[in-house]
Amino acid sequence: MYAVFTYRRKKDRRHFSGTQQSARTTVENTLGVFRRLKKQLKKGENMRCPYCGSVDDKVVESRTLGQGDCIRRRRECLSCGYRFTSYERIEEKPLMVVKRNGRREPFDRAKLERGIERSLEKRPVSMNEIENIVSDIEDAAVMNSKSAKEIKSTELGEMVLARLYTVDKVAYIRFASVYKKFNDLDEFINEVKKIHEHL
């Protein structure tokens, strides 16, 4: 049907009836949308927002990871304002986190971000700073995993503790109490003492 419309349009536009003209316009509009989407995807300019589904976004930060084999981009949806991360890398297996019991699961940035946000709740740290903290930890995890593309959950937890220690001591204690599973008040007090010793 598309070929017939294209041929007749080039030959003589006046041969179209009202119905044919309407159909031709609908087809051309649809094809125009597909062409624009194809062009955007080919250039890698836009990606679908995982929150609202819009493909209208902008890149707010780009960073090369490892030895240049991966590019991480932080994107902001222009429709709803949601921020998400995309990666450009050679097709390979994803980063896996090895749990204490030996079970493996894909690295989850959102899960990491939620844990850090809870630790920093009501602390004088902006959401932008939290995003930067999460991005730095994620980058370090990718680089430390090397070719195996695996990182132990304990190693990841220590990365979070080390970063929170430099940002906010209260957040550090909050995260440590959950991560290290304090059993009593003495363990909590000992952790606080360690902080004071380094001040």
Task: Characterize the structure shown.
The protein has 199 residues and is an alpha+beta fold. It contains seven helices and six strands, in the order ααβββββααβααα. The strands form two sheets. Strands 1-2-3 form a three-stranded antiparallel sheet. A hairpin with a 5-residue loop joins strand 2 and strand 3 (83-89). Helix 4 runs antiparallel to helix 5 (153-167) and helix 5 packs antiparallel against helix 6 (169-179). The longest helix has 26 residues, at 18-43. It is elongated and about 80 Å long. The termini are far apart. The relative contact order is 0.08. The model is unreliable at 1-14 (pLDDT under 50).
Note the gap between the termini: 76 Å
| Poorly predicted sequence stretches spanning 5 or more consecutive residues | 1-14
> How many beta-strand elements?
6
Q: What portion of residues is helical?
A: 40-55%
Mean pLDDT: 77
Helix-strand string: HHEEEEEHHEHHH
| Rg value | 26 Å
Helices, by number, come to 7
Largest sheet: 3 strands, antiparallel
- Spatial order of the strands forming the largest sheet: 1-2-3
Measured by DSSP, the beta-strand proportion falls in 15-25%
| Structure classification | alpha+beta
Assign an overall shape.
elongated
